[in-house]
Specification:
Elements (H helix, E strand, L loop, with lengths): L16 E8 L2 E8 L4 E3 L2 E3 L4 H11 L12 E8 L5 E5 L1 H4 L2 H11 L6 E3 L7 H5 L7
Parallel strand pairs: 6-7
Antiparallel strand pairs: 1-2, 1-5, 3-4, 4-5, 5-6
């Protein structure tokens, strides 16, 4: 059965977004901006706000735990190469190993299926840096 027309906007392409994100207590939280509002960083476009600034702002409004640091939780970023027009999602391995989280990030940011995935030493949570506390017993 054919889909009904959605007011003429069904063929309009939704602008991709770039963002930063965390996995906090099993919940994905994302701060994003449309590609047209992102900042140039070398040959890339990147989200205009940093993890630290966003985390502090969110702590003030109760969106993130008050007595924690932004680097405690698994986190990441999505960037776009201005030359190749390809998107890259860099994240902690705690996020990258979960296909459901990758799909949710891609969906939220309107990213293409061909988005590259990768790790970066900046995006390693305390769990990954210091090992599993359960294993130390």
């Amino acid at each position: 059965m054919p889909k009904s027309g959605g007011g003429g906007k069904s063929n309009a392409k939704i602008e991709a977004r770039l963002g930063i994100f965390w996995l906090v207590d099993g919940k994905l939280i994302i701060d994003s901006a449309p590609l047209s509002e992102c900042e140039k960083y070398g040959d890339h476009l990147t989200h205009p706000r940093g993890h630290n600034d966003v985390w502090e702002r969110w702590q003030q409004v109760g969106k993130t735990p008050v007595e924690t640091e932004y680097e405690e939780y698994a986190r990441g970023r999505v960037m776009c190469d201005t030359k190749t027009k390809r998107f890259t999602l860099l994240a902690d391995t705690c996020i990258l190993k979960r296909k459901d989280l990758i799909a949710a990030i891609k969906n939220e940011l309107h990213l293409p299926k061909q988005t590259s995935l990768g790790t970066d030493p900046h995006y390693r949570c305390f769990h990954c840096l210091h090992g599993n506390a359960d294993e130390e017993e």
